[in-house]
Amino acid sequence: MEAGTLDFESTVFDKEYVTFAGRREAIVRGGRHLFERLPAAFEGVRQLGVIGWGSQGPAQAQNLRDSLGDAVKVVVGLRSGSSSLDAARAAGFTEEDGTLGEMYEVIAASDMVLLLISDAAQAEHYRKIFDNLRPGTTLGLSHGFLLGHLLDIGERFPEEVDVIAVCPKGMGPSVRALYEQGATVNGAGINASFAVEQDVTGRALERALGWSVALGAPFTFQTTLGSEYLSDLCGERAILLAGVHGIVESLYRRYRDHGLDAKQAFRHSVESVTGPISKTISKSGLIGVYEKLDDQEKEIFATAYSAAYPVGLELTAEIYDEVSAGNEIRSVILAGWRSDRFPMGKIDQADMWRVGETVRADRAVDSDAPLDPFTAGVFCGVMMAQVDILLEQGHPYSEIANESVIEAVDSLNPYMHARGVAYMVDNCSTTARLGARKWAPNFDYRLTQQSYPAVDDKAVDPAPFEAFEGHLIHEVLRVCSEMRPSVDIFVE
Question: Are residues 44 and 107 in the same domain?
Fold first, then answer.
């Protein structure tokens, strides 16, 4: 289905149209005042099983339990002997009251199953999972990875079940933290996309929208499951994780080479991106960063942007091709098979990350990170490159804005600012961690070898920046900002 033809009709929730740079897309606005409609959305669902306790599992299980109350029983399903059992019990899910049970038993007993185990585990166990789904039930996903895997091996979802997706545009702790803020600020939450892949019950759409509203999404936009996994996997391997990681490592070394001490180099690279640059984009868009600079800084921004954009475009195009060809999905599955022998190590041992610990500790007396124009140009150039690749591939504007910009500046980067980029990467999903390890060095290398020498040799082609000020993404982000929650993400 082409992105421009996406539309839906709900009898439970109010649909409205939003125009993004001339393209009309349908959305549902969230808010706690809609919780009274959830029993109608979940009609026919007596038990909702949340399978897994990774990044999304705890947040979604608790949000759904709190939103649905007595209307639907929310039960967590985990493997026998799972190391997460105690954490689930601590969150109030227990065997005694029937809200915590063995994974396959919960799947078999549930009318709606949210499969939130790791991507590699889904690929390994999908046959047994499908065998335990009763005909007429609903299978929910928060990522399209499993669809990509099934397409790669020539298999399909069971024909007798609904298949839907609700995909929050932020990590699980953000989904929970902003939901809790929604108790006092109605509409606080993490945006989400939804998709209906199969509808055999006639209730798939309402259940998907109800799921998103119950999670606390401020607004829910439509996509397809295929479009979601392509943009999601591409995004986390580009600007959301790997890209920003490679950018700041390359900039830190550049600033050290140009004479800054370690703390100042960290502040002008990492702190600048995760602090003032991200905060400005969050409220005022990419164009807001440029408009905040003086004339001399604008020239520096334009040069850095034009130098970084071609590298970002080439790498993001390569990533998108690798995802769409199934290579990235296969690499995740293969890494899962190797994980017992070769567990992933930490990525926080380099000098710059140890310096970062000191810089973050010093914020009490020195909290103002600089909005470095060169850093801003590089970051915005790579971010815009991802926007343009997703535009070329026909993704919905709302999806492009969320996967390329909003998720970065409103969810992931604030965590990086509080805890560190390396910490953020190492506490994402296994799929994201693998992608960051694979692609961050590519961004680092190509910026260092191609972009920065072009700047130093005054050999930068200004064409990329010439397209910047009139880019349609600025209008898309302006519209999105009007639907932004009034609170910033809370990081514990």
Answer: yes
Q: Which two tokens stand for residue 422?
A: 């390396």
For residue 189, the enclosing domain spans 15-218
Burial string for 142-157 (b: 16+ CB within 10 Å, else e) reads: bbbbbbbbeeeeeeeb
Q: Could you tell me if residue 8 is inside a domain?
A: no
Please check whether residue 227 lies inside any domain of the structure: no
For this structure, is 143 an active site residue? yes
Model pLDDT for residues 172-199, shown as the tens digit of each residue: 888 998 899 888 877 778 899 999 999 9
Mean pLDDT of the chain: 93
Residue numbering of the annotated binding site for Mg(2+): 232, 236
- pLDDT tens-digit readout, 327-338: 999 999 998 888
**The last residue of a domain, from among 156, 187, 218:** 218
If one counts the domains in the chain, the total is 2
Predicted TM-score (pTM) of the model is 0.93
pLDDT (0 to 100) of residue 489: 67
d(CA 465, CA 306): 5
235, amino acid identity: G
**∠ Cα 432 434 437 (to 5°):** 110
Nearest to 77, CA basis, from 273, 60, 63, 68: 60
Q: What is the CATH number of the domain that holds 328?
A: 1.10.1040.10
Residue 5 pLDDT greater than 70, yes or no: no
Tell me: the pLDDT tens digits for 71-112?
Answer: 999 999 999 999 999 999 999 999 999 999 999 999 999 999
Instruction: Write down the catalytic residue from 33, 125, 143, 149.
Output: 143
